[in-house]
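This section describes the prediction task in plain terms. A model, or a person checking by hand, is given the sequence of a single protein chain and must write out its three-dimensional structure as a string of tokens. No templates, partner chains or ligands are provided. The sample shown here is typical of the held-out split.
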Amino acid sequence: MSLGLSLNIQFATEAVLTALIIWYCARRIILLFPKKKCPIRPFGEWTPVDFRYPEFQPLTDFDLQTTKPVPYRPFRWGPKYSVTMGIRAMSWDSWVELDNTYLETFEIRKKRAYERGSKAVCTLPGAEKAALEVCTELASYLAARYPQVFKVTRVVDKGGLGAGDSIVGSDGARVKTVEILPTGDKWDLDIDDPMLVAGLLAEDLAIMVEGSDGQYYLRAGAICIPGFWRLEDKLGLPLKEIHLRGGVYQYKEKLQLSLDRFFLKLPVDKPVLRNNYFFQIDPDLAWASVHHGNEDEFDQASHMPRPESLAKGKWQPPVPITESERQSLRRMPKTGCICFTIRTYFHPVTEMVHEPGIPGRLAAAIRSWPEPIAESRVKDLYAETMLPWLDKLHQEQVAAGILDAEDRKDRYPY
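The expected answer:
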């Protein structure tokens, strides 16, 4: 046997022995210090989490009269239209954002909540604790963040679900009353419907509760400024059916699995935000009847009035208004429900187009819409006249040096 071959065999033998020694040592470590398995939670069951809301600063100098809405512009440059969840992390101090439109929208919400009753605000049996938790969390947050606008009073309980919220700690006093100081409206959570109170305080709300099948069901909600999203069409449905019946583009192909996983795994300490946008052709904040027809004759699948309603007369649309939404999703620590908030913003296109880059980006976004999206956003009502106008404004911005012709930077959602 040659010297080289002998050395190779020796090295190979030593390598095998070394590997066996490493395996044996690793095995002993595993046996001595076994990895703890995460308990598998049965679907539909939740153990309350002792969660404390991260500290944030109160806006002591907040001015409800002069604070302008955040200028969300959640449309992207074409030519590709992307179908994604589009979520991003939510900072804890921005769960709800107030501005100088608050008082106007509050009066609309209040009027519609009482006029439309359970069509606007409803809690299904079994979701009462989730609705109460969402209401107390929201009231506590608003009073801490905007002390000039909201006030809560608290009472000391011995414990249980009605005890302290995540702002003051689970051992703290629970919220009993909440008041909107500028309007004088006040509610007692021992008497008033928590879902109604939560819906009137700030934004539209939907509460998703996990069922024994692992699906999330819309079990409570306050949808007072609905756009085309009527609570009566969705209440009681699982997440999948809400999207499928609503005709969400490529939901089964690109969104369903991601959404199902996201809802199952969303932790208490990782709230998220997302934005989207639509168009409507009248300025009615409550229900765009010019666009969608009579609210009680609406066809949710097409986002259009029913055919018999269309026969009553044709629309005469003005310049469109973008209707954008800021949505948050946050899991509640006590009941495990997921609170879905929806804040609607209305931005006249005639005002937005003066901002650098907006005319070109908006035109590119409209042209990127696949046919089903174009139909649901009623593109035919405005695109023929609006697109040339946007193109002209974009060219003027480029010529004036306001914008580089090749600038396609993603500034989503602003």
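For orientation: The chain has 13 helices and twelve strands.
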